[in-house]
């Protein structure tokens, strides 16, 4: 018959083995997750992805980026210019409304992006001031500017038409676009102050696909 001391030793041994097993399982799962994330990051970009674009952009903080730097998130994008007094304030309001209606548990998977069609006026400093003025200065929001050539090329991708009608005025399309985590266009909302329910539904659908 085993003594109490021997039984206690056996129990301690079993507990130690259990802890070692749990630790080994946790390490294995972490390694698997890292491999999955690495594989997703290295996933080939399709021909339809905006991440193929080689254009360089500057954000409101003066940082130089490429579109592919935002890979892995759902992008909600609109083209505006900060000196606009007609359609753009309403587009900005629509973007803010969409962002506010997103569930908290997916917000870190979504990037709200505003691209300037007037890079000459919309310097990083001006974009930063605009972001603050409109209470869009959290990490959720990115403002971008580039050269006129890159801007025109990107507008073509979004099917946004714009034309300079005076030194401080542009005529342009009113379109909000949703891109999936691979940079592929999946939905567009056209018009001002329209029902954004389908847009939000698409953003949720794409965000839920991201691990």
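Sequence proposed for the structure above (211 residues):
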């Amino acid at each position: 018959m085993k003594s109490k001391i021997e039984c206690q030793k056996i129990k301690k041994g079993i507990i130690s083995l259990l802890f070692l097993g749990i630790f080994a399982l946790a390490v294995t799962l972490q390694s698997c997750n890292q491999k999955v994330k690495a594989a997703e990051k290295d996933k080939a970009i399709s021909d339809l992805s905006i991440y193929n674009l080689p254009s360089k952009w500057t954000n409101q903080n003066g940082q130089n980026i490429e579109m592919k730097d935002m890979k892995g998130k759902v992008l909600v994008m609109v083209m505006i210019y900060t000196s606009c007094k007609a359609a753009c304030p309403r587009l900005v309001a629509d973007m803010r409304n969409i962002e506010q209606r997103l569930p908290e548990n997916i917000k870190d998977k979504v990037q709200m992006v505003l691209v300037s069609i007037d890079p000459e006026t919309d310097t990083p400093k001006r974009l930063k001031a605009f972001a603050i003025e409109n209470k869009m200065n959290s990490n959720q929001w990115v403002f971008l500017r580039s050269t006129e050539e890159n801007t025109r090329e990107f507008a073509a991708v979004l099917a946004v038409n714009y034309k300079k009608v005076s030194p401080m005025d542009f005529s342009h399309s009113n379109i909000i676009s949703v891109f999936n985590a691979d940079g592929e266009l999946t939905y567009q909302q056209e018009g001002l102050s329209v029902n954004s329910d389908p847009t939000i539904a698409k953003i949720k659908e794409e965000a839920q696909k991201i691990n």
